[in-house]
Structure formats: structure tokens, C-alpha cells
Amino acid sequence: MTATLPINLLLVAADVFGWLADSSLMPHGYCLRWDPALVSLHVGADTAIALSYYSIPAGLFYFVKKRDDIAYSWIFVLFGIFILACGTTHLMEIWTLWQAKYGLEAVVKVVTAVASVVTAVMLWRLLPAAIALPSPEQLRVANAQLEDANAQLEAAVAKLEEANARLEREVVERRRAEAALETTTVKLQRSNAELEHFASVASHDLQEPLRMVSSFLQLLQRRYADQLDETADEYIEYAVDGAKRMQVLIQNLLAYSRLGTRAEPFESVDTEAVVRDVADDLSVAIEEHGASLTVDDLPTVQADPTQLRQVFQNLIANALKFRGETAPAVRVSAVHTEHVLADDASAEGWRFAVADNGIGIPAEHAERIFRIFQRLHTRDEYEGTGIGLAMCKKIVERHGGRIWFESEPGAGTTFYFTLPLRPAPIQPDHADG
Q: What would the mean pLDDT of 89-117 be, rounded to a whole number?
């Protein structure tokens, strides 16, 4: 059977060519008896149909070419081929009126049939997807939603641009403020440096003449004590006492001015050992007043050891000095804190406390007591120059911390100060005033 298939195909092909070449059949015009009116009617109708069919594919092909973005453009091409084949069949109808080329007409109809079947099958396969395409109303709604979304986007972009412009203005203003702050800081540092230098020089230069005045007053007191009356002795005693107090004030002023110029680099300091040393220095006063000093476990910190010792010395000495009617009880402790500065929650460190049971401090003096030469009591009540707490404040701030107190008059006072775990490195300035 396999061997006979090519022969059969050849026979079919021979038959087709035979139909195409066959001219033994009568033209179709004989069927119409060559009636002029009837022949004209057939020719006119088939001509109009053929021309219309040819114009439709031309329009479809033009549409597809111009709208290359349209979906399923291939179906338009299939329709064009199908309609073009249909138009050709009508032309063959006209031709067969005079020429009996019915074999050729059959071939044209077969081509038309194939185009029709392919177009119909592809059309039915395309229908679900075509039906799913949005309708004009759906497109209108979607377009309206898109326009609304676009309007919202434009409004958001406008707000973003406005916020960006505002941010840029704020950045410019902040840079100006930072530049002004930096200029002010430089001026303040220069002013503080000049002030410290002036205080140091003034204190140093005042000491020598004051020492001379004090020495001669003391010499006058010793040599002529028995030769003058009581009033003169009292005047000389006042003068000697004033000179001594002036010397102490100048020495304290010199020490205060040198907190920045004679400072040492930070190093690891055992604060518990420092407090023990201070307790040894104040042992006479502690025993004299029957005081008790309790020292909790204290940490090792990065600090200037000399200045840190001054802080504990002043705070503990004040606790002994400003005692109440009962024997002084002083306690030194420390706890870890994440709030070294009141406005900086990210800085870790230690919060030290020096608590006593003394006379207490009124709350309205919270700022005043840390100012230099500010005293809450007369010299007759409590001795001192009013510089100790000012020195404590300056030292603690140099270390990057802060100092404050909590007190209840008549029940005691607790001084707090903080030191950061990692203070900013500060190199000492050894300039001599």
C-alpha cells in the first residue's frame, strides 16, 4: 500500500490538471440562454460583490498596519485572506459565463473553503479571550480610576516636592545656625581662654604683694602687740585675718582658673581608692565630729585622677562641714546609668552619689550654689570661700558629665554627678598663667 500511495497522488494530480485543461464543457452562459439582461445582472452583481470583498481585506490590512499595538491582529489577516478568496470566487463566476474553466473555479473554491475553515476554527478559539476584553464602559471606568490615581499621585508628588523644598530650607537654615554656633563657640572658647589666663595672671601677680602685706601685718602684730591699745590690736587682727582670707581666695581663684590649663589626660582611675585616700586626708575632721563614712563598691572610670579627687574632697568635706545636730553620716555610692546627660539617653556611664544627714539645702538655691564665690551662709556660721562646688561643676563638665543635688532641709543632702564610660579625649593645655 505504501508503494501505491505516490501513484495515487500522481493520478489525482493528473485528474486536476485534466480538469484545468478540459474545454469540452459548456460555459455557464448557455445555462442562462445568453439572455442579455440575465447575463448583465449576474455580471454586475458578481462584479460588485468581488470589488466589495477586495476592498474589505485592503481595509483590514491597512488597519493592522496602522494599529500594530492591537491585540490578536492575526485574526484580521485571516479574515482578509478568507474574504479575498470569497471575492475571487465571484470573479470566477463571471469568467465561467464565457469560459468553461470549472476546474480552476473548483480550485479557487477549495482555497476559499480552507481559508474559511481555518478562520472559523481560529475565531472560535479566540472568542473566550475576546469576550474577556474590557468593554468601552469598563475602559471608561478604568480610565477614570487611572486619572484619579494619577491626580492623587500628582498631589503626592507636589506635597513631596513641597516637603523637599522645606527640608532644603531647613538644611540651609541649620547649616547657617551651625556655622553661627561654631563661630560663637570659637569666640566663647577664646573668651574663656582669655578669662582663665587673666584670672591666672591676676592671681599669680596679686599673691606676692598680698604676701608682703600679710607678712608685715603679722610682723607688726608680733612686735607691737604690747605697745598698742586694744583697739589698735583689734584693727591689726582684722587686717591680718583679711589678708589671710584674701590669700585663700586668690589661691582658690588660681586653682579654679587652672582646672583647664593644668589638667591631665584621662586614665583609668579606681574611684574607691580615691575616696579612701580622701577619707585619710579628712580623718582628723571625721574623728573630731564623730562622723561615719560608708563607701560602697565603686567602679574604675576614665578620668583625671587629681581633679576627680578634688570633687570627692569637696563633697565629703562639705558633708562634714554642714552637719546637723547629730553626728555626720556620709555615704558614697555609684550605679550604672544610661543617662549621663539629661538630654542624651544614649550615653552610658556611672552616676555617683555623696549623701549626708546634714542641714540640707533649699531647692531655690539649686543653681546658685554651683556659682563661684556664692555662699548660702555667713563666714561666722560656716567657714569657706564659696568656690568648692563651682570647681566640682567645672571638673564634672570637663569630663562630659553633669552634677546636681536633691535635698530636704533639716534631713540631709545627696549630691549626684555622672561620668561617661567613654569620655571624649581631652588633651591638657600646660600653658602657665
A: 86
Supply the DSSP symbol for 387.
-
Instruction: Return all residues near 310 (Cβ < 8 A) that are at least 6 apart.
Output: 391, 392, 395
Beta strands in 131-280 (DSSP E): 267-270
Nearest Cα neighbor of 314 from 340, 282, 289, 288 is 282
CB 309 within 8 A of CB 271: no
- Residue 208 confidence (pLDDT) above 80: no
CA 370, CA 386: separation in Å to the nearest integer? 9
C-alpha cell at 101: 474553466
With CA atoms as reference, report the closest residue to 50 among 95, 99, 4, 100.
Answer: 95
Closest CA to 403 of 392, 413, 412: 392
Instruction: Name which of 274, 279, 289, 283 is nearest 357 in CA terms.
Output: 289
Q: Report strand pairing: 403-408 vs 329-337.
A: unpaired
Q: Please, what is the Cα angle at 10 between 7 and 14, to 5 degrees?
A: 140
Mean pLDDT of the residues in the chain: 78
Q: What local confidence, expressed as pLDDT, does residue 432 receive?
A: 44
Higher-confidence position of 63 and 303: 303
Chain segment 287-319, per-residue pLDDT in tens: 888 888 999 999 999 998 888 998 999 899 888
200 vs 141 pLDDT, higher one: 141
Res 326 pLDDT > 50: yes
Q: What is the pLDDT of residues 400-433, one digit of tens each?
A: 888 888 888 878 889 999 998 877 655 444 444 4
C-alpha 333/C-alpha 318 separation (Å) is: 17
Residue 285: other Cβ atoms inside 10 A = 14
Of 329, 319, 326, 327, whose CA–CA distance to 382 is shortest? 319
Nearest to 96 by CA among 13, 39, 14: 39
pLDDT above 90 covers what percent of the chain?
Answer: 12
pTM given for the model: 0.48
Provide the 8-state DSSP code for 408.
E
Work out the burial of residue 64: count CB atoms within 10 Å of its CB; fewer than 13 is exposed, 13-18 middle, 19 or more buried: middle
Residue of 107, 98, 103, 112 lying closest to 50 (CA atoms) = 112
Which long-range CB contacts under 8 A does 168-173 form with residues at least 24 apart?
none
All three cell numbers of 76:
484580521
The answer to whether the CB of 330 falls within 8 A of the CB of 289 is no
- For residue 424, give every residue at least 6 positions away whose Cβ sits within 8 Å of its Cβ, in sequence order, or none: 400
